Every structure is written in structure tokens, then in C-alpha cells.
Amino acid sequence: MKNHIKIFDTTLRDGEQSPGCSMNTKEKLELAKQLEKLGVDVIEAGFPAASNGDFEAVKLIANTLNTSTVAGLSRALKSDIDRTWEAIKDAKKPRIHTFIATSDLHMEYKLKKSKEEVLKIAVDMVSHAKNYCEDIEFSAEDASRSDWDFLCQVFESVIKAGATVLNIPDTVGYTVPSEYYDLISYVKNNVKGIENVDISVHCHNDLGMGTANSLSAIKAGANQIECTINGIGERAGNTALEEVVMAINTRKDFFNNYTNVNSTYLTATSKLLTSITGIHVQPNKAIVGENAFSHEAGIHQHGVLNNKETYEIMTPESVGLNKNKMVLGKHSGRHIFEDYLIKSGYSLSKNELNAAFVKFKDLADKKKKVYARDIDAIVREESIKIIDTFYLEDFSISTGKTSTSSAIITLKRGDDVVKEVAMGDGPIDAAYNAILKIVNLKLNLEDYTINSITEGRDAQGEAVVKLKHNEKIYTGRAINTDIIASSIEAYLNSINKIYNDIENLQ
Ligand SMILES: CC(=O)SCCNC(=O)CCNC(=O)[C@H](O)C(C)(C)COP(=O)(O)OP(=O)(O)OC[C@H]1O[C@@H](n2cnc3c(N)ncnc32)[C@H](O)[C@@H]1OP(=O)(O)O
Ligand SMILES: CC(C)C(=O)C(=O)O
Ligand SMILES: [Mg+2]
């Protein structure tokens, strides 16, 4: 029997506590809806007593969501709990989450209270919250640095007072996996009534062990993980949701657990958070980093070309990405280089390929990034076979919000100059339709992308166009600060490769 691990997302509360991650009501609601779509069990929407703005955001989220439980955080203080209930009372599934610190350090210096006082406050406030709501989570802040027996005493008492979820936070990211495993096991074995409540863990990343500690805790019997998208949160952040979900999915053999999260929405959710906060994910971040499914090393690329499982433990599709990325660089080998050239529509002899590969390696030694245009230049040098049939002489585009786009394209073929006009769904489509009238080919546009490869208002846009002709894919590329020009040139580049093949066959 597999066990359900509940995912408690606190991006909107602990995540929002990261410097620079404050969100307004509209942004919080948008993210909350995405988290519900992602399938998280509990969304901690905020700390209603923190500000009127947070109160309104939590209330709006509570009134909008349908399937996820909506939790609001409160100190162990009547006024905080009252304010939280006011915000979440209309939720389909409301939860009051209240907390108080149990470590000697926090009790002495922060709360200035004795153990007995803290125990009483915890019980009284859980009882107070229970008057409002059935679902009550109690967190013992700084649990991992607390006296274990005192912690058990507090937990046993709050269960009697009505707590339905016990959270054992590693508030300052201090613990390590085996110690945390022992702590969860100790609590499980020494708290009466614990079998009737959920055991939750909430880890921070100060030593980079948030995910490892959370996973170790579920091995010890925890059944709720508190986490955030992209791992944002206080200081070095919280356990990253995408990491625990994919670890549980990927290592079913080890954990024998499942979550309700639809992992194919992970990338979209991560990107939504980045677009709201403006805080980018590091490229080597597990699951959602730009390099998480990229390969640059030749030995790896060769393995992946033969069987992706050689170097990919999960598929890019399973996290909502289209495909992996093969980066051509100084560590790449002949197999991937040849594969790239074939997919780009080049047909080189063995000797040409070898010579181009040597030049590519020399260039990669000098440049940090080798772009497609660099490889095009190398290949063109090596293979005089690719001769442009068509040159772009001129273009003129007319487009607007309410008018249909039209394009006039002038191409040169040898000494002939041909001009055509066409309409289209947008300027690029109009331009491509005009070119098609001139080149007289039956083509299928398989893919079109435009990316900026430099920064600023004068950024260079690289257009990549994949055309299918007679079952073969031809990739055209072009770079220009004018993205319409680069789009037209990339299309022509692809067409010239097709013509090149046609002429070679004759
Ligand atoms: C580990 C965590 O992430 S805990 C959550 C942390 N999140 C936040 O703090 C964000 C929201 N916080 C806030 O907006 C503000 O801190 C507020 C509104 C909650 C309180 O603001 P203020 O009243 O100005 O107090 P301030 O933040 O300076 O100090 C905290 C007070 O709460 C007390 N306190 C701290 N934790 C708790 C608790 N769990 N239960 C009861 N009281 C607590 C402190 O002892 C201190 O009390 P004092 O004012 O009597 O000395
Ligand atoms: C409020 C609690 C759960 C918390 O964020 C922590 O202890 O880190
Ligand atoms: Mg926290």
C-alpha cells in the first residue's frame, strides 16, 4: 500500500517572507489558483494579522479556492487567531495554523517565557482556535533545537486540546537527515494520540538540506511536507516543492509514497512565481533550473542520443518541459556535433565533418558560448556545398491592432528580382506567405522560435525556423536586431538549404 504524502505549500506565507518576494493581492490570488491546479493539498495563503493587505489577500483566496485547504498562520495569540479565522472562515476547507517556539533559546530570549508558560499558551490557543475550526495545525517553532521530551509534552497536550496536525519545524535549517529521522521517530513513539493526527515537517535550507531532511522525515513516518515553489522562503529558503514531489515520484521504489501534485505543471508554476517576484531561479536548480535537462558533455550527449535514461532520471515532459537541451560547447563530442548538423539540414562528407569538428572544438576553447551561427559559419567554410539561391533584397510590412497584416517581399535569385505581396495572421505569417509565392515549394512550418541572445533595447533576436520538405526537416537561423528581419532571413536560410539539397540531387 502506498502512502499519501500531503503537500502543504507555503510559498504565499514563508515564501513571501524572502526579501524581495512580497506579492500584492492580485498576484497572490493568481499564484494560489495555479497552486490549486498543481494539486497541492494545503495552501498557506498568508499571515492575516501581519497587515490589512495580507488579511484581504488571504480572505480573497479563501473565498475563491475550491479543492485545496486554505490555511492562515497566527501567533499563539487570541487576536492573531481571531483575525485569521475572520479571513478564512468562508473557505471550503479552512485551517487555522498557530505556532509558538519550544526551544530554550527562543523561549528565554525571544518570548521571555518559561516552559510551563509556553505549554499553557500552546494548549489555550489551540483550544481557542478549535472553537472556530475543526482543522487546527500546531507548530513548535525551532522544534529541531528543542528539548525532545518537552516537545513531546507540548505535542501530547495540544492533541488533547484539538490539534489535528502537528508540525515539527527545522526553523533555522540546523538539523541533518539522520538526526531529523530520529527526532520524527522519537515524537511518533512518545506522543500519545499521535496516530490520530497528521505529522508535518517544515524545513529550511540554511545548510542546503531542506529537501534531504524532509525526505528523511517521511521515511520516519511524517505524512505532510511543508514547502515552497522554487524553494523561496526565509534566509536560504524552504524545502523546494518541486524537489520533494519529483523525488517521491522518481524514487517510488524507495519511498513507496505518492502526492496529489500533477508534476506536469511544475515548470509553469515555477515560471509564474519568477514572473511575479522577478527573482530568477539559479540555472543549476534541481527540476526547474534552466540546466536541469541540458547536456553539454560529449560522453553524456552520446549516451542520451542512444538512450535518454543513461543521464536523465526523469523525463523533461514529466515536469512540463517540451524536451531536453543539447548544448554544443567545448565538452561536446563528434556524435552530438554530427547529430546537430543532420538536424540542421547539412549533409557533409566524413572529411568535411572531421575538419568542421576540429574547428568547432578550437572555437569552443576560445568562446564561452558557441552559437548556432558560429557552427553555421564553420560548416559553410568547410562545405562550399551550401550556396544561397535566394537573397533578401527588401521587405516592407504593414500591421496594426485592427488591420490585417500584409507584407511585400523582394527576393533576388541570380540576376532576377522577384516581388510578391501577401496577407497573413500577423507580420511574420504575411512575410512567409509572400516568400512561399516566390519559392514555389510545398513546405510545412514545423517550428518557429525567436529568442533574444543579447540584452537591452537593442538586443539581437535569433530566429530559428524548422521547415519540413519531403519528410526532411531543414533548420534555418538568422540574427538581427530587427526581429521581423531575423524571422524572414531564418525562413530563407531554411529554404536555401532545401534548394541546396534539390540541386545536389540533380
Ligand atoms: C518562523 C516563522 O516564520 S514565524 C512567522 C514569521 N513571520 C512574520 O513575522 C511575518 C508577519 N509578522 C508581522 O507582521 C509582525 O511581526 C506582527 C504583526 C506579527 C507582530 O508585530 P509587532 O507586534 O510589531 O511585534 P514584533 O514583530 O516586533 O515582535 C514580535 C512579538 O510577538 C511575540 N511572539 C513571537 N512569536 C510568537 C508566538 N508564536 N506566539 C505569541 N507571541 C509571539 C514576540 O515575543 C514579540 O512580542 P512583544 O511585542 O510582546 O515583545
Ligand atoms: C511558522 C513556522 C512553521 C515556520 O515557518 C518555521 O518554523 O520555520
Ligand atoms: Mg519557516
Automatic annotation (TrEMBL):
Pfam families given in the database record: HCS_D2, HMGL-like, LeuA_dimer
Reaction(s) the record says it catalyses: 3-methyl-2-oxobutanoate + acetyl-CoA + H2O = (2S)-2-isopropylmalate + CoA + H(+)
Domain Pyruvate carboxyltransferase span(s) in chain numbering: 5-267
Gene3D superfamilies reported in the protein's UniProt record: 1.10.238.260, 3.30.160.270, Aldolase class I
GO cellular component terms given for this protein: cytoplasm
Role: Catalyzes the condensation of the acetyl group of acetyl-CoA with 3-methyl-2-oxobutanoate (2-ketoisovalerate) to form 3-carboxy-3-hydroxy-4-methylpentanoate (2-isopropylmalate).
Quaternary structure note: Homodimer.
Family: Belongs to the alpha-IPM synthase/homocitrate synthase family. LeuA type 1 subfamily.
Name this polypeptide is given: 2-isopropylmalate synthase
Protein source organism: Helicovermis profundi
